Amino acid sequence: MNYDSGQASAEFILLFGGIIVVVLLAIFMYRNYINELGGEVKSKEVNELNGKLNEISEFFT
Question: Which long-range contacts (CB under 8 A, 24 or more apart) does 6-15 make?
């Protein structure tokens, strides 16, 4: 019997499975970094907004 086609299919399944595992590990490792970056961006935006509001308030006082 010829099992070459079955072996090729199994190798492709293992290859794609390995790629999926690597991608999931990368996402898991960078999740904390991305969350911290989002916090920094938000605080920067809030600080800029406060600065602009302070500039505007000078015109009314």
Answer: none
Tokens 């086609």 correspond to 5
Q: Which amino acid is at 30?
A: Y
Query: Is the overall model pTM greater than 0.85, yes or no?
Result: no
Q: How far apart are the first and last CA of the chain?
A: 91
Share of the chain above pLDDT 70, in %: 80
SS3 of 1, please? coil
Q: Give Cα 8 distance to the centre of its chain.
A: 33
For tokens 């935006």, name the residue.
Answer: 45
Report residue 2's pLDDT band, with 50, 70 and 90 as the boundaries: low
